[in-house]
Amino acid sequence: MATSRPQEQRVAVIGLGAMGIVTVKNLLEEGFNVTGFDRNGYVGGLWHFTEDEDTLSVLESTIVNVSIARVSNAACSYGSPSRDLTMPRVAIQIFPFKRARTPPFCSAKQVNEYLENYVDHFNLRPHLRLNTAVKYVAREEESDRWRLDFELAPSEHFDKVVIATGPHLNPVMPEINGSSLFAGMILHSKSFKRPEAFTGKKVVVLGLGNTGSDIADILVGHASSIYISHNHGAIVLPRDIDKVTGSKGFTHRFSIIVGFLERWCPSLSEALFNRKAKSIMSKAFGDVDPAWRLDPAPSVKVTNPVVSDTLINRLRAGDIQTIPGIKKVTGPKELELTDGQEVEADAIICCTGYKYGFDILDPQVDPSDKPAIAWLKAWGSKGRPLPRLYQNVFSLKQPDSLAFLGCAWFITSAFCLADLTSMCIAQVWAGHSKLPPQPEMHRWMDQQEQRITGMGVEEHLGWGWKGWLFWWRERPLWKMLMDGPQTAAAWRLFDGKRKKWDGARAEIERANEVGEFDKEK
Questions:
Q1: Superfamily, domain 7-170+355-369+387-435
Q2: pTM (2 d.p.)
Q3: Second label for 62, Cα 20 to 30 Å away, from 88, 215, 283, 438?
């Protein structure tokens, strides 16, 4: 709840990529005294190409995966937010792409120009400090404000802070057994800038995702051989889904249907979504060769589809080959794969993603400081933290003054989502909407962890149809779970996104001393 007028409150926005600049704009519209900070000398974040191998950026050849009709903030003005986001009382200031000279799927350079123009159109530059690296953010209880420490400037105090550094801060580098034997290059995709550096080389691209697919495609015509090394399948979708389906693809109507099913029958929702994605893939590319090992693919609720217009054709032509995962390095150029075969390579490019990084935050308010054990053990976590945030936005400890962008995702463009999320933050902090009490926010987060780790406990012990069915069929076990001592085995009892443990029931019965419960019946 706001304790003073917005004009009297200083707000710091850390990170001035697409998420940060829309946040500055939306907070300014509500009257807050806003200052945005970025360590780079430019706005736009990763959309600004740079040759610096220590700085993440798009490639010069990058094409966006989402049509500009869905990317620009113009699209946001017509969409409906989720019921947990509050639309502002003032209208959104629309700033669409200039469609007359921008193709539907534009280049990264055009996106960067759009972001620069966005900043100028809304006169945001007076509120931005570039080349200013924030070193540490801490809450000072005596002043009830946030202290920002900078690398090359005196500390300053703010009433509220938005962390908009995004989800691509810390690259995930895999451990490859025997890597010290390798004579070639092993690098993260963050450091890949131009394909010319790999001319005539045998390259293994580790990871089948959007980045891995893009880099493999760019290497065609430069590298002498290109392998994509992957352990699981993938759903591959074209950029222009509407053109393939002859419809509007993932429409708002479809989202409403999926959302309804997600609430009342999540397994059916997941099946419907996967079926639609696979249908689009089949219409776009036809049958795929089983040797590529694209099937079975993880659910689109767990792993993002690969968006590529060229990957399937490159595989058919033999320009790119797929191989299993790397087991170990056996020599200066030799790699042993998980199926026992060997390949030669001069370079390994690790397209293994990123994880959230909140190193600048005091550990007391770091939402990823104490991740749930169940989440870390879940297949989809891959060692990445799950930030504990209400609605994936607001700090559970300081919701009235600390918020995050880049932790909430659903099916829309990232720009539009950032716009909606930052409007929500502005409305709540301006006092136009209220957050629930902190205990309720903590309960929401606990349930969120259970939902996404696929433990199934809440559904089977709740008031939905699964809960009633479980109560009817397994009343003694239901009673143990509801009234007996809590045991870790409960989180492995039900089928979900992770495998259940066949010994979970016996362990629960032992912990509950079944005989005592039998006497009560």
A1: FAD/NAD(P)-binding domain (3.50.50.60)
A2: 0.78
A3: 283
